[in-house]
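re: that chain from earlier
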Amino acid sequence: MENKDLISQLLPDHVLHEILLKLATKDSVKTSILSTRWRYIWQRVPGLDLNQTNFRYKGLKGFVNRFLDLDKKSLIYQLKLEFDGRKYETEGSLFNKWVDSVVTRGVQHLVLVEVGIDSFDSVSLPRLETMHLLSVWFSSEAALERLISSSPVLQVLYIEKVWNVEVIRVRSQSLYSLRMRIWKRDLDWNKDLTKIGLVIDAPRLKSLNLQIHRFKDLVLNSVCSPLKVDISISKGEFNPINSLTMKTLRTFIAWISNVTNLALNYCCLEAMYAYSSSEPLPQFSNLTHLEVSMDSSCLKLLPTFLASCPNLKSLELWVHDHRLDILDISRSTMPKCLLISLKFVTIYSTAMISSSVENQVETELVKYILGNAAVVKELTLRFILWAEEHRFQLSKQILAFPKLSSACQVFLHSSFF
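^ sequence. v structure.
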């Protein structure tokens, strides 16, 4: 039976364009050899997804210029450029030209990786909804700020490493999701930069994910507390606790105190615990879901923070250090959430269970939850992997723990990754 190109026969061009839009441009171009019908389909795809490694540099410039010149009236919904920003930072004006070209053609999604951006005299991105900036070199801090603030309908912003920027300023009236990753090793590349400043002015922000391992200042202007916050900082970021760090902590803690969904790494928990020794933590009255990454001292810190979460319903604990301090339950008052609201608890462990399970921090956490959570319905314990005999031994041990909630079911699982 003769093979037939049923896809191109049955589907109109605009559907084929949408299909090819999901592919990298180099793969989209390859479809031109399928048949006569496919030969020029890729040229009408409303987007570019290009990686420098697939071209010689001059060939890449020529390809982009020719593609953009094919039909200057056609729409381009997305642009992704992945180059080497440090090598081509002198070509910033070229990238500006390409960005300007797609702006006039309705670009909605912009992803820039390892590119260089010159200062803009003026820029307007009236339809841009998502922007990803990964290892982007900017000629000035103002260029980054202007790129963001000139996107009036921007909804999602992701920043991972920016070069030549000491203070990141995010000013947007439309932004609802912000994710930012600035690691220590990234700052090490900036020889004159040891810490980075962050200014957020985004009144409609709903989701915030910050992984910043050295920041010198945090300014929050016209920002309501987002519904969902995920924060990671480096160990000792707020040490020593002094008037300056207390001011930053006070601003930050007050800001997140109205969130409903919160994720913290152990360094954040340590900082909040240190803060609580000088000033009481505010009540996180709206918080219903909490996720904490556990490390060496978190067992004794956790109850202090839980005491500020009176309406917590769901708790996730990620355990990475398995020789932690024994949990101190000799508190004068038990966290309110354990008595009236906490319903679901999940403990994730990276431990490979051995036969010596009696000293595992995970079992101490299970004992604490079962013995003090009055209305908990489900407690789930997830390990990477364990032998059947060790699973049986742990199950037997857990079943012997007293349970305050008669309705609580305990589940044990392995291989959660």
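The longest helix spans residues 57-70.
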